[in-house]
Amino acid sequence: MESNLIELVPAFLAGLVLGAFYFGTLWLTVSAMSRVRSPGLLFVTSFVGRLTVALTGFWLTMAGRWERAIACLIGFLLARLVVTILLRPSMAASVPENRS
User: Fold this and answer.
1) Handedness of CA 62, 65, 69, 75 (dihedral sign)
2) Span 36-54, pLDDT tens digits
3) Are the C-beta atoms of 26 and 46 separated by less than 8 Å?
4) Which end of the chain, N or C, is less packed with Cβ atoms under 10 Å?
5) Single pTM value for the model
6) HSE-up of residue 5 (Cα within 13 Å, Cβ side)
7) How far apart are CA 88 and CA 72, in angstroms?
8) Is the pLDDT of residue 99 over 70?
9) DSSP of 10-62, one letter per residue?
């Protein structure tokens, strides 16, 4: 049992890296959309690139073992949570000032 858990740690860490890449790049893409001439092209290109990297990473990480795929997915989802919390706008910035 212990050797199985130790075997899953690299898959979990790979999921963290893949998730940080995927959601960090998504944030960068959305941030840049107002500054580019063709935001639709940017979004589609970014999506295809992010998806290609993520799916390739999952496929290489799992190596035919569903346990590794689950560990990678857990890391990916945890990275999503962390990136969402870190990049969330502060409450002070989102509350409009009352100028009455």
Assistant:
1) negative
2) 999 999 999 999 999 999 9
3) yes
4) C
5) 0.82
6) 2
7) 24
8) no
9) HHHHHHHHHHHHHHHHHHHHHHHGGGSS-HHHHHHHHHHHHHHHHHHHHHHHH
H/E stretch holding 83 reads helix 66-87
Neighbours of 45 (CB within 10 A): 12
Please state, in angstroms and rounded to a whole number, the distance separating the CA atoms of residues 52 and 37: 24
Question: In angstroms, how far is the first alpha carbon of the chain from the final one?
Answer: 65
DSSP SS3 for 4: helix
Nearest to 48 by CA among 71, 70, 22: 22
